[in-house]
Fold this sequence. Notes:
The protein is α/β, with parallel strands linked by helices and 292 residues long. It has 2 domains: 3-222, 4-Layer Sandwich (Metallo-beta-lactamase, Chain A), CATH 3.60.15; 230-291, Arc Repressor Mutant, subunit A (Orthogonal Bundle). Helix content is 38%, strand content 21%. Strand 8 (137-140) and strand 9 form a beta hairpin. It is globular.
Amino acid sequence: MYELIQLSEHDYYIDCPAKIGLIKINDSDAVLIDSGNDKDAGKKIYRILDANGWTLKAIYNTHSHADHIGGNHFLQEKTGCRIYAKGMECTYSNTPLLEPVGLYGGNPFKELKHKFLMAQESTVLPLTEDVLPEGMSILDLKGHSFDMVGFKTADGTAYIADSVSSSDTLDKYGIGYLWDPEASIKALEFIKELDSAHFVPSHAPVTDDIHDLAQLNIDAINGVKEAILKFCSKPVTFETLLKSIFDKYGLQMSAQQYVLIGSTLRSYLSNMYTENVLTYHFTDNQMVWERV
């Protein structure tokens, strides 16, 4: 774990629970794509940089989830590097409390205020093309998170963040966190056709062909939509629908799973309401969802 793996002359990744991209921009300087899940991850990354004699110039965050920005605080304090993120990801990274607030929809209770949902604060600047190393470009991959991005390097490596889940993860869980399922499908269709020498997903094996895995993720999203339509064949409250989803996918309810899958389900409902396949109404002071 935390092994540095070289993909091309300049491109590397650090193999860890949420893979970290590393691009060597010259003999002495490097930049990171994401920073791991906590201070300990930051320390391990720093040791890799130090062992290779590289100075960290910048961190480019793909999105603001804690397992991708958790090392920001330590690395920024240690090296003085600049950190960049796009749009809402920048806002959330600067104010990590927003993550559990957004998931819960209110003032989060203590079981939601931990390092897996709330990173330490760091100073993050807006991400634009002009702050990237030469030859590196931004990939618009919003869907899993508000303004999630990936990056393609001059050497042809595509770091694609959480746009795909591994086949093992899909087999085990069936449903994962999404901010916008329809935007996720658009991002998956995009990466299916993206020409890259290597694809580095954060939570799936590195590959030179992402097409089949991207399609598997699209199929999984559509499978969730089909399940929701089935459960909404008659009027159903959100809580009852959420239990049905947990039961179908064999999930175990906890505070963290409640907010993650609950938020995801609400996003599916919003998308499907916009598509005019679901509607809602209020009965006996309860909001109920029903197939159109």
